[in-house]
Amino acid sequence: MYVFNYFIKFMANQSNKNINNTLTKLVNQPYKYGFSTKIDIDTIEKGLNENVIKLISEKKNEPVFMLNFRLKAYRKWKNMRTPTWAHLKFPTIDYDDIRYYSAPKMKKKLNSLDEVDPELLKTFGKLGISLTEQKRLTNVAVDVVFDSVSVATTFQEELKKYGIIFCSISEAIQEHPKLVEKFLGSVVPIGDNYFSALNSAVFTDGSFCYIPKGVHCPLDLSTYFRINDQKSGQFERTLIIAEENSQVSYLEGCTAPQYDDNQLHAAIVELIALDNASIKYSTVQNWYAGNTKGKGGIFNFVTKRGLCIGQNSKISWTQVETGSSITWKYPSCTLIGENSQGEFYSVALTNNYQQADTGSKMIHIGKNTKSRIVSKGISAGNSKNSYRGLVNVLYQAVGSRNYSQCDSLLIGNNSNANTYPIISVQNSTTKIEHEASISKIGEEQIFYFLQRGISIEKAIELMISGFCRDVFTELPLEFAAEADKLLSLKLEGSVG
Amino acid sequence: MSPNIPLLDIQDLTASINDIKILKKLNLQVYKGEIHAIMGPNGSGKSTFSKVLAGHPAYNVLSGDIILKGQSILEVEPEDRSHLGLFLAFQYPIEIPGVSNEDFLRIAYNSKMKFENKTEVDPIEFFTIIHEKLEIIDMDPIFLSRNVNEGFSGGEKKRNEILQLALLDSDVAILDETDSGLDIDALKIISTGINKLMTENKAIILITHYQRLLDYVKPDYIHVMQNGKIVKTGAAELAQELELKGYEWLNSTN
After folding, report:
1. Residue A67 has what DSSP assignment?
2. Which of B14, B50, B94 has the most A C-beta neighbours within 10 Å, making it the best mutation to test the interface with A?
3. How far is A266 from A197, CA to CA, in rounded Å?
């Protein structure tokens, strides 16, 4: 709260009402997306057991392989424990106090947006998501996940022309069971970790994307997730398959309404890139982060992993993490195909009492594989922000390369930044570079801006934006502007 | 504004940092068209004086007043003091990683435009404006694309300060040891720049330890600061006398 103190001193010094007002306004700025929608909800009782899983599978009318998948995952999960190695502190989660299925009640299958509950559409409006022509103009197809069930999918028809399948995972299970059966769990095995096992057991929806051979997806595919029902944990499952010589860019944006109770969020994203295929996966994560005292907020435990199975394939993760009270997330790449490439670009911002433990794993297996990690952590307030990374080059991955850069920026005297990089190389022909830095936005820097007539908000925005530039340039254009704005918006609370 | 009113009027200014009184009833009047030099031994409060004027939040004004163009600025935020025409060239200009000099300068310029209800300029218009200013201090345009002061030599940093002064066209400039760390050539260039910027409507306060800057920028008054206040004021010749005899001489004559 260094900057905050700065203001306090300043106020005491100047007793300036204007600053006081601005400050109060900034501090009290409510979470923009903190509203809940009143909709009839089809739910099941709280708690988790085999019957609940059977019920979920039944409600979703799933084929038997899915039920088996879920039950196998549940049985594994039962015997696992919450991982404690992360630099995170959070209360024990009562998994029996969570409702594992809730879907907006729909009387019949919808054919167009006109049939969607107007309350729902209003919510999307507040979130700034347009499902109609605007998105077509901005070249984005949207698959909206509202709580657990996809209620509207646009541009499916248009994508179909290219043979691209872009739909909810539930729909994919119904319509393309063979693809799902083949690839689901092939990147993140059922028992990979505690949260992936949980997700595999109870996931209710998510997105599915299949790009056929030789197709360059003409649109950036985009998903907005939203948690609505107060007690419903959201367990999305995303599966993207890029066939030989195909390309796709996928955007994921998240906002969630404000609640006092913590909400659990345990997602899995699996990416598969075959020969010469390229997948770019970008995330802007802005779940509710809790209030300034650290009460409430989303617990976000995400397993994201990409498999570069084909030669010359490429998977690139870009993430801007600003929300959630707890973030546990390590988008990774397993580089199997020769000359395949993995990338991870990340900005993680924590403020108030937020805690983030995030980073990446790059597993080099194929020859001449390359990876790149650029991580920027910003900690303000009383927050904790950790980078955790693993670069593992196996003996057969000769001629491989990795470049890692981990920069931390501290704002204030009570925030915390940690870096835990692990590098393991098992052959002598690999080149590894690792750079790290830590810096702090100081009072004198801010005063320099002020003396030149630049406001404190603008000063911080400029410095943060400069700090994050290497990552923002990797974001799709429309996201980049949003990300810049989001970060300054997030920090306004800390500056105040 | 009537010509009789000082551009900057400092009245009985008393200020502290961490409860230590640094400025003690300091008085100074600066009129349009005047160049004032403030000299004095280390620790006499010269830099504190400049920061208090600019509104640095670490300092507390205990009593007295600072009146800029007839208006008290004690209650005015630092950025608005800047907009009102007060400029401080820092003794140690700070590095700002990740922010290009060009962006920084443009945003500073546009902040002032906005304050004056004038139209803000786009980067292309700004390009023309800043290039004119670069010539004043003979600065290589390459410095625009570099981050603010990052990796600049001492002389380049000082030059960058004067560039900002030229750009913001401030009425009252306080130059805190702008001459320190400069070689003779850089000193000449910067002094020439300062002289070009000085007009009959502006005023400059030079804080310096050395006579040599005053050979190039001729002050109308020289003040000697000691123990938080101005203890002696004289014409340009006072500097030469101080150079010869040192500050101790003042104590013996006072």
Report:
1. H
2. B94
3. 10
HSE-CB at A55 with a 13 A cutoff on CA atoms is: 15
Q: Any idea what the Cα angle at residue A415 is, between residues A414 and A420, rounded to 5°? A: 135
What is the structure's pLDDT at A231? 41
The helix or strand, by DSSP H or E, that contains position B134, with its residue range, turns out to be helix B123-136
Walk me through the domains of chain B, giving residue ranges and CATH numbers. Answer: 33-59+76-253 (3.40.50.300)
Q: What is the pLDDT of residues A388-424, one digit of tens each?
A: 999 999 999 999 999 999 999 998 888 999 999 999 9
Distance CA B221, CA B235 (A): 5
φ/ψ bin of A284: left (φ > 0), alpha (ψ from -120 to 50), beta (otherwise): beta
- Asked whether residue A305 carries a pLDDT value surpassing 80, the answer given is yes
Contact assessment for residue A421 and residue A389, using Cβ atoms and an 8 Å cutoff = yes
What's the predicted TM-score (pTM) here? 0.80
**Which domain range does residue A384 map to?**
2-495
Nearest CA in chain A to B80: A453
Helices B123-136, B184-197: inter-axial angle, 10-degree rounding: 120
Would the CB atoms of A455 and B58 count as touching at under 8 Å?
no
Q: Are A273 and A307 in contact (CB under 8 A)?
A: yes
Set of chain A residues whose Cβ sits within 8 Å of the Cβ of B100: 466
Would you call A328 helix, strand, or coil by DSSP?
strand
Domain count, chain A: 1
Contact yes or no for A455 and B56 at CB 8 A: no
